[in-house]
Each structure stands twice: as C-alpha cells, then as structure tokens.
C-alpha cells in the first residue's frame, strides 16, 4: 500500500537523521554530550566516560547506517537496535521533557521495525 510505504519512508528518514546527527555530533562536540553519560559507566570494562561516549556515538552511526542497507533483515535489526538503545537511555534520564522526546523516538523505532 502506498500509505504504508510513505509512512515507512518517513520513519526511516527521521530515524536515520536523528541517530546519524546525534552519533556524529558526539564526535564533533563531545563536551556537549559527556554530561549525559551516567556516572556509573565510568570505568565499566576499563573504559572512561569519554570512551563510552565514542562507543555510543559509533553505535548510533552504525544503527543509522543499518537503515540504509537494501536488505530488510538488516533494516529490521537496526530498528530493533534503536529501540533497545532508546530503552537504555530512558532508564537513565528520569521522567522529564527529554524522557518524553526519547519515548516518542523509541515508539517510532518500534513502529518502523514492525513496518519493515
């Protein structure tokens, strides 16, 4: 159906842009993001908060790139990966305006995974 294809395209584009831009920005402006890393992550498996920030940025770029692959299974894995990533973020933010934004993004990722 045309409407389903359009909805899938809009959701894919939105998630590629959000995850791609946020992932790249973590490398370009790490000082803007480092405060969002939870304190308990510092030293986890021997990585500093700064290193975890780079891991997070790289994973976001990889997930965004996964939606660009022509294989449906890769796209579906990327969408579910985005969902899991956002679930983790939601456990760390507390209930505030960012929680609401990230909840909307997570539900968008779920919808995209179902549509793929």
Question: What do you see in this structure?
Answer:
The protein has about 120 residues and is mainly α. The chain has one domain (about 1-115). The protein is about 80% helix and about 0% strand. It has helices at about 1-30, 30-35, 50-65, 70-95, 95-115. Helix 1 (about 1-30) packs antiparallel against helix 3, helix 1 (about 1-30) packs across helix 5 (about 95-115) and helix 4 packs antiparallel against helix 5 (about 95-115). The protein is globular and about 50 Å long. The model has no long low-confidence stretch (mean pLDDT about 95).
Q: In total, how many beta strands?
A: 0
Helix content: over 70%
Rg over CA atoms, rounded to whole Å, is 15 Å
For the biggest sheet, the summary is: none
List low-confidence stretches: none
Summarize it:
The protein has 116 residues and is mostly helical. 78% of the residues lie in helices and 0% in strands.
């Amino acid at each position: 159906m045309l409407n389903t294809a359009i909805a899938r395209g809009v959701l894919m584009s939105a998630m590629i842009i959000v995850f791609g831009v946020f992932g790249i920005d973590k490398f370009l402006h790490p000082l803007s993001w480092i405060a969002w890393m939870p304190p308990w992550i510092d030293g986890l498996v021997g990585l500093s908060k700064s290193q975890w920030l780079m891991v997070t940025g790289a994973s976001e770029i990889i997930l965004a790139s996964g939606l660009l692959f022509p294989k449906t299974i890769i796209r579906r894995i990327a969408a579910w990966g985005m969902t899991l990533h956002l679930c983790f973020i939601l456990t760390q933010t507390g209930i505030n305006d960012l929680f609401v934004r990230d909840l909307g993004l997570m539900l968008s990722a779920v919808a995209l995974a179902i549509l793929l």
